[in-house]
Amino acid sequence: MRPTLLLLFGLLALSFRPDKPAYRLYDAKIKAVSYEQLLRRAANADVVLFGELHNNPICHWLELQLAKDLAEQKKGQLVLGAEMFETDNQVALTDYVQGRSSDKEFAAQARLWPNYDTDYKPLTTLARAQKLPFVATNIPRRYATLVARNGLSSLDTVSAATKRLIAPLPLTVDLTRPGYKAMMEMMGGSGHGSSGAPNPHGSTIDMAANFARAQAIKDATMAYFILQNRKPGQTLLHINGDYHSKNFDGIVGYLRDMAGPSLKILTISSVDVPDPEKPKADSETNLNQLADFILAIPSDMTKTY
Question: Which percentage of the chain shows pLDDT scores above 90?
Answer without folding.
Answer: 83
